[in-house]
What does this fold into?
Amino acid sequence: MSPNKRGRAEPTHEWEQIELLCAWPEQRRYEEIRPLVLFDVPVSGRSEEIGLSPSSLYRRLNAFESEGMESLFGSDSARRKKLPLAMRRLIVDLKAEHPAFNLNEIANIVHVCFGRKPATCAR
It folds into this structure.
């Protein structure tokens, strides 16, 4: 088991401490609604605790219930970068069946099947 790179933190339910531990905005947005999703905490109490309006929390909660984790990625550019489901499935299947394939080989197969290559992460 590898040690935590940020150091060991004790489990807590204190919002001020949780907020300090969140490295990404998406993680913070999830932590804001997590008690509402998992423990059915009242929205009014949670909104006072974290300093966010109840209407914003209801909006985030409804988006999470309909879209899942994708709702946490608020920017349109993050949503645009998602590949179609069939293309993603092919990539995962190819990598599982042929682990030795490199990214270029997989991209070429995807291009043959779908008529376009997926964008690479490294630019």
Summary: Residues 90 and 120 are 16 Å apart (CA to CA). The chain has two domains: 15-80, 85-114. The chain has a mean pLDDT of 85.
